[in-house]
TrEMBL record:
PANTHER family: INTEGRAL MEMBRANE PROTEIN-RELATED (PTHR35007), POSSIBLE CONSERVED ALANINE RICH MEMBRANE PROTEIN (PTHR35007:SF3)
Name of the featured protein: Type II secretion system protein
Transmembrane segments: 6-27, 71-90, 223-242, 248-268
Domain of life: Bacteria
Residues in coiled coil: none
Record-annotated Type II secretion system protein GspF domain positions: 107-235
Cellular location(s): Cell membrane
Pfam annotation, one family: T2SSF
Membrane topology of this protein: Multi-pass membrane protein
Source organism phylogeny: Bacteria, Bacillati, Actinomycetota, Actinomycetes, Streptosporangiales
Length: 288
């Protein structure tokens, strides 16, 4: 047996096998997600589309009122009412805020339990995205896990992106606590998250009580709107009863009355609205 030829053949086979494995490995790698700040354009676009639709409805409503009554002031008041009243009578924003806080509380507790089981922070964050995340925070949590797993983004930067997607002061508190855990890598992270979850739960309870009180103001707003709708129906059906409003002086008086109603509705809306807190984590896109 020719020993040098055998060794040369084995060496060549080893080199070719190594090159083949490298090629297969590179070909099997998926595309790496580009690191970019979260975009708010989809939400802005949806808001613009909704406002444009509402503007079209307000225009046609104003034209209809002008055709039925012949009162320019009533037409203008109708257009403004169609644009403003959905926001005034709705408590959707506060309800969405409470659902988000409840979701953050649940997710924080689950994350604390994962850390108790001995998992590293990054591993716990990735696994938390696959454990029935509440719908209110599904997108931010999934993006966080994807940035850590696929893009291999630094943990602190990924958490800042996570806070920016949540866009909430409570989300900033949770992200800041996780950033401290990522920096120190010490014990007590699970206990810290459990305490933070308890604070969020108390915040949710307090907001529910406040929202129950504010719902009374929205009920008052609905009663006022009912009175205005009744007056509009009378104006359409009983022309002789509201004929004085058709004069120039009557239009001035109607404008004053509509303005007073508008100020009252705005004031009641302010009483029934909660102020959004200020965030303290900076925009990750501005990080150096």
């Amino acid at each position: 047996m020719n020993t040098p030829a055998l060794l040369a053949g084995l060496g060549t086979s080893a080199v070719l096998g190594g090159v083949t494995c490298i090629v297969i490995g590179l070909a099997g790698r998926g595309p790496v997600e580009p690191v970019r700040p979260p975009s708010r354009w989809p939400a802005i676009r949806r808001a613009l589309i909704a406002r444009r639709r509402l503007a079209v409805i307000s225009f046609f409503a104003a034209v209809a009122v002008l055709g039925l009554t012949g009162w320019p002031v009533a037409a203008c008041a109708t257009a403004v009412a169609v644009l403003a009243l959905p926001k005034v009578v709705s408590g959707r924003t506060a309800a969405q805020q409470i659902r988000k806080l409840e979701a953050l509380e649940l997710w924080t507790r689950r994350l604390a339990d994962l850390l108790v089981a001995g998992r590293a922070l990054e591993q716990a964050l990735e696994q938390s995205a696959s454990r029935n995340v509440p719908s209110a925070i599904t997108a931010p949590v999934s993006s966080l896990a994807r940035r850590l797993r696929v893009a291999q983004m630094p943990t602190e930067q990924a958490l800042r992106f996570f806070a920016d997607e949540l866009n909430d002061p409570v989300g900033d508190r949770i992200a800041a606590a996780l950033i401290l855990v990522a920096r120190r890598r010490g014990k007590g992270a699970s206990a810290l998250l459990h305490q933070l979850a308890q604070l969020v739960a108390k915040d949710v309870s307090d907001r529910r009580e406040v929202e129950a009180a504010r719902a009374e103001h929205r009920t008052t707003v609905r009663w006022i709107i009912g009175i205005l709708v009744t007056f509009t129906a009378v104006a359409i059906t009983q022309r002789s009863y509201v004929a004085p409003f058709g004069t120039p002086v009557g239009q001035v008086v109607l404008a004053m009355v509509a303005s007073l109603y508008g100020v009252a509705l705005w004031w009641l809306h302010r009483l029934g609205s909660s102020a959004v807190g200020h965030r303290f984590l900076t925009d990750p896109g501005k990080q150096r």
